[in-house]
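re: the backbone from monday

yeah here it is again, tokenized this time
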């Protein structure tokens, strides 16, 4: 029910005056907020190229022993997988692995269009990329990097250790490669000054479906019963090598026919 007495009208007018005073007092602040937002938008628009460039070049340090990792671009992460997950899709991700330390890959890591560059940071022994394995009731599965389209991985001054079976009584599944592919797209794996060790028919990459696998090996040692490319019943592979050493049963390809589904220099 609306009040109609004189006293009620006086109270309503006073309340209106108070509300008007409040809005008038706040208006300069609101105008300032709008001006600040407009200036920030203008600055962002004029600097858009640099913003995109910085976002799409994601460079971090990987230190498994860091007590308080910042987990931002330009900062420190404990784990390789977490750093890759934090990078924008499609970014160039530079992973500076601290020398003399062991860096684990204990889960499947999806690249989602990212291009990865692993390199040593600091003086000393090469960092070691230690790959894990799990098993279920039927198979052993090697951990690694899962690609969906066209991605690349570059390793420089990194040693890579493939795992033993988690359950020696079970065979490996098809997931026994460092880089695992979907059935389409082109993926490039490049290694320079790396030692790769393994014991049980694992591989750097696999070639399946209609996928194309390119493996480049420069000044690299492959040691043990491992391959550059495996699962060559389908797909196409290109293997390029320079100053490559194969020892203790290592090979470049498992299966396949030269000139049909793989090429090699």
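seq for it, each position gets an aa:
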């Amino acid at each position: 029910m609306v009040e109609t007495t004189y006293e009620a009208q006086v109270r309503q007018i006073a309340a209106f005056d108070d509300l008007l005073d409040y809005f008038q007092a706040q208006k300069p602040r609101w105008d300032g907020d709008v001006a600040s937002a407009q200036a920030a938008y203008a600055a962002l628009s004029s600097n858009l190229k640099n913003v995109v460039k910085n976002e799409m070049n994601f460079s971090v340090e990987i230190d498994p022993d860091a007590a308080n990792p910042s987990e931002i671009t330009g900062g420190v992460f404990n784990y390789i997988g977490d750093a890759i997950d934090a990078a924008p899709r499609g970014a160039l991700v530079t992973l500076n692995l601290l020398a003399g330390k062991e860096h684990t890959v204990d889960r499947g890591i999806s690249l989602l269009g990212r291009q990865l560059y692993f390199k040593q940071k600091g003086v000393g022994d090469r960092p070691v990329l230690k790959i894990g394995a799990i098993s279920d009731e039927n198979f052993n599965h090697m951990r690694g990097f899962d690609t969906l389209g066209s991605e690349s991985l570059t390793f420089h001054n990194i040693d890579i250790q493939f795992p033993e079976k988690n359950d020696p009584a079970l065979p490996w599944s098809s997931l026994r490669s460092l880089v695992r592919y979907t059935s389409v797209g082109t993926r490039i794996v490049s290694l320079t000054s790396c030692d790769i060790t393994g014991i049980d028919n694992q591989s750097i990459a696999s070639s399946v479906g209609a996928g194309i696998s390119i493996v480049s090996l420069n000044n690299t040692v492959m040691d043990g019963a491992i391959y550059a490319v495996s699962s060559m019943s389908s797909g196409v592979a290109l293997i390029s090598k320079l100053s490559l050493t194969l020892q203790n049963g290592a090979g470049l390809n498992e299966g396949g026919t030269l000139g049909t589904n793989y090429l090699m220099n």
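The radius of gyration is 28 Å. Helices lie at 6-46, 48-55, 80-86.
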